[in-house]
Specification:
- Helices cover 75% and strands 0% of the residues.
- With 186 residues, the chain is mostly helical.
- Helix 7 (120-138) crosses helix 8.
- The radius of gyration is 18 Å and the shape is elongated.
- 29% of the residues are buried.
Length: 186
């Protein structure tokens, strides 16, 4: 049996950490738990990531890479009502599908805020992605009210998808899509 590559090992740590952070919270999750779940020692984990904050940074980077790819693909579509409807459906489905592993769904909420506060570059990247999503939906002529309403919705989606984990994905997607549409009419 071939040993995993460095990239595969790092990806496994990131995957396990994302799930653990989303389930238990950043502070409540130990590096030992992550390492054991991935089938490695804590020393191996620390070899790849110098600290728990570094591991969270890698989890966030992975999530943001996926989000940026999605937003970029949506931005390539011709602006208009069809693009807006497609973007709403796609962004909500993306958030709901990733609710078990999204680092933005960490509980308690202050865990993610504290962790992002220690990494201003990562916080800036989160804010930039959110601004792109607002522009994607509201367009260049968005009113301040629309921008704020969408900002509130996008900031709250991670908490909602976590709080309502028991709600079937189809139902949650429909409700959140309606909320986004309502925010656009403000």
């Amino acid at each position: 049996m071939q040993r995993p590559t460095r990239e595969q090992t790092r990806a496994e740590f990131v995957s396990v950490a994302a799930r653990r952070f989303a389930e238990q919270g950043f502070q409540a999750t130990s590096l030992e738990e992550i390492a054991a779940d991935a089938g490695y020692s804590k020393a191996a984990l620390l070899y790849h990531f110098g600290s728990k904050d570094d591991l969270l940074g890698a989890v966030m980077d992975h999530h943001l890479d996926q989000t940026e790819e999605l937003v970029a693909s949506l931005e390539q579509q011709i602006p208009g009502r069809q693009r807006t409807e497609h973007a709403i459906a796609t962004l909500i489905a993306f958030a709901v599908a990733r609710r078990p592993t999204s680092p933005l769904t960490m509980r308690p909420v202050h865990d993610i805020a504290t962790a992002l506060g220690r990494n201003p570059d990562l916080l800036a990247r989160v804010e930039q992605v959110q601004a792109r999503m607002v522009a994607l939906l509201a367009g260049p002529g968005a009113s301040l009210r629309q921008q704020i309403a969408l900002g509130v919705v996008f900031s709250g989606i991670p908490a909602v998808v976590t709080e309502f984990r028991a709600v079937p994905a189809e139902d949650l997607t429909a409700i959140l899509s309606d909320v986004l549409r309502t925010a656009l009419t403000m």
